Amino acid sequence: MVILALNCGSSSVKYQLFDWEKKEVVAKGMVERVIIGDSFIMHEVPGRETYRKEYECPDHKVAIDLIIRTLVDGEHGVLKDINEISAVGHRVVHGGEMFTRSVLIDEKVLDAVKDVQHLAPLHNPPNIAGIEAAQAVLPSVPHVAIFDTAFHQTMPEHAYLYPLPYEWYEKYGVRRYGFHGTSHLFVSKRAAVLLGKKPSECNIITMHIGNGVSHCAIRGGVSVDTSMGLTPLEGAMMGTRCGDIDPAIPAFMMQKENLSAKEIDSILNKKSGVLGITGRFTDRRDVIENAANGDHRCKVSLEIEAYRLKKYIGTYMAALGSLDAVVFTAGVGEMGWPIREKTIEGLEGIGIKLDRERNKSAMTRKRETLITTDDSPIKVFVIPTDEELVFTEDVVAILNGTYTDHMNFDYSFARNSFVRS
Fold first, then answer.
1. Which of 87, 126, 169, 357 is deepest in the core (most CB within 10 A)?
2. What range does the record give for the signal peptide (predicted)?
């Protein structure tokens, strides 16, 4: 059984081809700069040199077609025929309240995803485009939706309801949903293994920090609070999203600049965050480099981001009551040691003792690393996420009829014997 996992972001498409019988990744890669120009594919096959090809992808359909053609390419591919693919797992950012776990995609499911796409305007549209494009290329195989929001459906009412007119929730579903669920699921279960405990015995804060950023308070293995809200705009400072701000600011600026609702929404989602402060960067590598060279706005951007990350650790520790570990994951969380250092330093009083050398050496997306001292009461780990493996295992379990909720399902990565490929 060969499973193709697709993760369509706002300007990229990640993919992974997994051979279930051999339990190995056959190929993986990413098409970057989709829509924005100068796009290209990076295609990795174990034992071969990474293949890169520049190819303009004005939309996600073209990007997925490029992936499929690369997978069956005579020189660089790994499949003789596209029909070797048994099923496709699709990341879907927003599932609303309807979906609490992964599901087979049919017309009803796709319609439901379309109905809530306005809640994730940067992601659900490309997710939908990816599903439709893949269904067109592979119409005879099962397609499965894996929802970012599903993991957070365990949040209690007092965590997911906003102090707004209750009828807004009843009529329009205005509530906290949360995102990056598969990432939080994966790294929290890996953290439990590193702690030598069952997930049900752990209280963990997971911090997914990439272009999009979200944090999760996990008590006894399940999500009880998370930073993103009705949409992925709420919460931490992100690459282009503002995160938490005074809710009066949008109305104030709409009046001052004569902006429409659509225009202010675009500014908050696409022109704020790191880009808003620095004026030119979203990639934290650029921000870190220029801050080191004296760029004031880059320095301020790093300070704002780390300060807000620090506050979330304190907030979620209070919500959980006790804390076993903090986990950093995703591109910035795994590679951005200066941001981790600024976030953790000064937290000795609550039981987090940073080992600066361990933290500086933890700059890989292939190794799980402890970055606190051995005697730190609360451990901090850097754990590379593997959302595509979650996709794959959900898809296989659904096809085999063994799928259930994540606390009762036997994920391979939740075992002590798990070895990262």
1. 126
2. none
